[in-house]
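Re: your question about LYR motif-containing protein 9

S., sorry for the slow reply, the queue was backed up all week. Below is exactly what I fed in.
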Amino acid sequence: MAPLPGAELVQRPLQLYRYLLRCCQQLPTKGIQEHYKHAVRQSFRVHSDDDNPERIQQIIKRAIEDADWIMNKYKKQN
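Result:
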């Protein structure tokens, strides 16, 4: 189960970035949203020099899985 519709359409880093920021908007409080937005930005800075297409696809897949886990975590708490 993907956190938001459209996860299967994410193919490029910019699409992933936008997708993850939209996921952050769904989180319950402003503080939690800001925390994860910061984490998304930091991760993109760290990986900005990756140019291996296979590695980029691995990162995208893992980021979507992590977003799914986070969204489910906060969904269960409410």
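Residues 39 and 45 are 10 Å apart (CA to CA). Helices lie at 13-25, 30-46, 53-77.

Happy to talk it through on Thursday.
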